[in-house]
Amino acid sequence: MTADAFSKQYCIYQELTQKDISWHVGAYVSPPISFYQPPVNNIYQLPSPTSYFDKYFNQNLLREIVENTNLYAVQNNTANFAPTTVQEVNNFIRMHVLMGNLSYPRVHLYWEPKFCVPLISENISLNRFFKLRQNLHFVPVIYKDPNNTDLRPLFDAIKSRCKDDLELEARLCIDEYYTFQGPDQCHSMCRTNRLNGA
Predict the structure, then answer these.
(1) Which of 55, 89, 168, 186 lies 20 to 30 A from 125 at CA?
(2) What is the pTM of this model?
(3) For the PiggyBac transposable element-derived protein domain, which residue ranges apply (predicted)?
């Protein structure tokens, strides 16, 4: 587009006529530009992902997991299972969060030379990972029942943190989902709508 064509289109867009435009010869002086700067008190520093993780998986919960995992391994006579520690279980859960974000199709790929993730492969061996995953327990075996309460301590810890620590915000975005049972007796998730609240 030529300069003349551009100036004609600009005049049409701004509803200007030739009489409204006057040209001057001289050096161009840029007008002052003021940028908006939000007040300092409105800037919110987000905590690190590690601090969010530590809020939900506190030391008491991790000690309970360690105790029940070691107890389960002893009760089942798991061969070559060295007792786990709070630090190892802490790292193990964090690795699962990382794996959930990366989503490799097979677990062993995190240790394969071509695809390995050093944060995982350098902290735990593949055999130890599977052995720990096989024996991981949140409650003692004597309390197990078919009503899926094995993860109750984890649910309770997360629920109490959500009630205590989450701050209510003025603007919310809520995704609503519901389950339905289809003709093949499988449960599916369906998105219904998204609500923006003020």
Answers:
(1) 55
(2) 0.59
(3) 48-179
